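Sample entry (186 residues):
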Amino acid sequence: MAEKEVQKNAEGKMKKTIAALKNEFQTVRTGRASSALFEKLKVEYYDQQVPLNQIATISVPEARLVLIQPWDPGSLPAIEKAIQRSELSLNPNNDGKVVRINIPPLTEDRRKELVKLAKHMAEQSRVSVRNIRRDANDELKKLQKDSTISEDQSKRAMDEIQKLTDRFIEEINSELEKKEKEIMEV
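Predicted structure, serialized as tokens:
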């Protein structure tokens, strides 16, 4: 029974790794407008670093346009400054009520940079999944050493954890492939 607990634990952690990767991928700019690009953007607001989505509404009315409507119009200059300082390479336009951001098509070089970034994120996730596998296997070895489980149970559980690892790494590769396609799309 203890080995099942270790497997369940490992699977839960691997699922969280995939969720984190998907979340990170949302912040990588593609040719299309997306409110997720601005989710992690911090704005200096009353001497505090505040996430943009906590002081404004972010909407995408068109494929290449993002509208940011702050609840306090006084924060418009700070929002504009935060966008200009970000690594998004975007130019915001402030009309006194909303910030409009036209999302220009990506250059070929920028696309290749973003694909590299996505590959790096995916590799970090693969490493994380392998570390979870290693920790689970160590735990199983410890349980076997303490005579809590038999050698056969330990071996079977390690095989199951390897299958889990393979499945999650395949899912990471699939997510990366989708993201690459999205980035390279003109």
